[in-house]
Specification:
Layout: H1 6-31, H2 34-49, H3 62-90, H4 101-119, H5 123-133, H6 139-146, H7 150-168
Helix pairs in contact: 1-2, 1-3, 2-3, 3-4, 4-7, 5-7, 6-7
């Protein structure tokens, strides 16, 4: 992140001093956890510092602050769901096969990137990709089941694979 110009730094400092307590309380009510609320409030102001909309704030900045915080809240809940699903799958493994905490963190981060990549695909592309990868269907089988042409399925799979490669970089 680049350094803020003095005017922007003063704006963020003023916003922080006037709205941080309110934001942390709002997030605490949403999350039920003071530590997570403090973390997300901190992250909200970090995002605000990097926002191009900082210079155009009007007399009611809470709309932008709330918008940023809601996005972070959704990301937090999504991460928690992915992490919970992963931990539930680990519970079925024998103790010696359970991964280390470091490996768990890497896996959850990877799952979050995959989840974001899948959400970025169109519904048709995502469906074709998952049918190929998870169900092991051929392109012809996917075309038959979805009512698409073979060339459309091939293009959808290619789009999904390109998105996978972009995530891997």
């Amino acid at each position: 992140m680049t350094a803020l110009d003095p005017t922007s730094a003063q704006t963020v400092q003023s916003l922080y001093s006037h709205h941080h307590g309110w934001l942390r309380g709002w997030l605490h009510r949403k999350l039920g956890d003071a530590c997570d609320a403090a973390d997300l409030a901190h992250d909200t102001f970090l995002r605000l510092m990097g926002s191009s909309r900082l210079a155009t704030l009007n007399d009611e900045p809470r709309a932008l602050i709330t918008h940023i915080a809601k996005g972070l809240l959704v990301d937090h809940w999504r991460r928690r769901q992915v992490q919970q699903a992963y931990l539930e799958s680990l519970a079925h493994l024998p103790e010696p096969q359970a991964p280390s905490p470091e490996t768990e963190l890497i896996v959850v981060e990877t799952l979050m990137r995959i989840d974001a990549m899948l959400r970025g695909l169109s519904a048709r592309t995502r469906q074709a990709f998952l049918m190929a990868q998870l169900d092991g269907l051929t392109l012809q089988q996917i075309a038959t089941q979805t009512g698409s042409t073979l060339i459309t399925v091939r293009r959808d799979i290619q789009r999904a694979l390109v998105a996978c490669m972009a995530v891997a970089d």
